[in-house]
């Protein structure tokens, strides 16, 4: 394979040099943090009065973790480290509480973010020759503008298509000769369903690759999208608190996501003890940003569960790779006492050829007990009036799920294209149990 690097010197930097660079940038970031009302108090309490109190990377351990609640408590300006007139943009995510987590950027912060995004896009083999259709929400959500700037930085022709409206998306792909797509994995699957419905021949399109992220998905889902749309799919990870997309991305090897360690310090901890896990073990990802001045965030608990690969990647990049995010420490379902992650269910069903492109997990109370219902669409060629084969399929899905998650679910089959599709991130779980139980 012919690998290409956006910034070869940094991407292939020796570990000692990378660590030295991290230390230097961490000290700078501590300087920014000491200017914010939130961290000033926290850091001084932790014995850090100035950047010089950080002597080695291990001194990071002196700094308390930051949580989403802290960011909300600091709303609106508790984390701002520069005068307001230096701020040129904000992004925000609202979540369920109504108080938005708001991240501010100055000019250099936006430049840095675009540069990391360009690094990600270029690592997939994309170049200025590509036509890039960015089919994700623009606005306060970081996915739209984040990828947009990165694509422009690479020099691609960027189409700011936004999310939804599949027929318009197909028209743009045909009119402009789109070669690269960006969307959530659930939207890419939906697109394939709609493409068949609209009678659009794959050969009439010029697609080569797709970037898919912003929500968890399994390796089988990747393979499915690749087979259906005939594109290479690259996993993209990020979160608004750390700019948005551009934190970690797959290279052409498609085997784990390189986390850009000159921009982020990554730790993986046990979510209960908050102590580091052994290298290669799964735990919660904790991130410290090293590439933003306006809103420094130190040791942020992402809640995302992952692990580090222990070996270096074949592409020659030295920045460590994260395994596909399997879920969040706060999205685990407890069903009659058994723990299950939605990603485990997806992993089973997306590997079954009878299952179509969309599914929904419902959890209900059935008397005193919990009931798990897995609703899936059936794949093409399976007819809803053939009750004998439908029953056999249901039984096969039920048995396979039970063997894997130790819960006996009820399985419901739905016709292709009939389960709800959301424009943004897919809503995969509907837990209707009363919250106080
Ligand atoms: O989703 C930023 C983004 C936009 C990433 C576009 C990639 C592409 P938030 O809305 O703040 O930001 O959501 C962040 O989404 O903590 C994960 O739980 C989840 N997530 C993001 N990417 C992935 C991925 C954007 N590739 C939250 N795999 C994160 C699994 C992901 N989960």
Structure description:
- By secondary structure, the chain is α/β, with parallel strands linked by helices.
- It contains 11 helices and 20 strands.
- Strand 3, helix 6 and strand 4 form a beta-alpha-beta unit.
- Helix 5 (107-123) crosses helix 6, helix 8 (185-197) runs parallel beside helix 9 (219-229) and helix 10 crosses helix 11 (387-405).
- The longest helix has 19 residues, at 15-33.
- The mean pLDDT is 95.
- It binds 5'-O-[hydroxy(phenylacetyl)phosphoryl]adenosine.
- 5'-O-[hydroxy(phenylacetyl)phosphoryl]adenosine binds next to helix 6, strand 7, strand 8 and strand 12.
- 5'-O-[hydroxy(phenylacetyl)phosphoryl]adenosine is lined by residues 93, 142-143, 213-216, 235-240, 244-245, 302, 304, 325, 328.
Gist of the model:
By secondary structure, this protein is of the alpha/beta class. It contains eleven helices and 20 strands.
What ligands are attached or bound here? Answer: 5'-O-[hydroxy(phenylacetyl)phosphoryl]adenosine
Shape: globular
**Ranges with pLDDT <50 over ≥5 residues?**
none
Mean pLDDT: 95
Biggest sheet strand order reads 4-3-5-6-7-8-9-13
What is the number of E strands?
A: 20
SS summary, helix count: 11
Strand fraction band?
15-25%
Structural class: alpha/beta
Question: What is the topological layout?
Answer:
Layout: H1 8-11, H2 15-33, H3 37-45, H4 68-73, E1 89-93, E2 101-105, H5 107-123, E3 131-134, H6 142-154, E4 157-159, H7 166-176, E5 180-183, H8 185-197, E6 209-213, H9 219-229, E7 232-239, E8 244-250, E9 257-259, E10 264-269, E11 283-289, E12 300-306, E13 321-322, E14 327-328, E15 333-335, E16 338-340, H10 342-349, E17 355-366, E18 369-378, H11 387-405, E19 410-414, E20 429-431
Helix pairs in contact: 5-6, 8-9, 10-11
Bound molecules: 5'-O-[hydroxy(phenylacetyl)phosphoryl]adenosine.
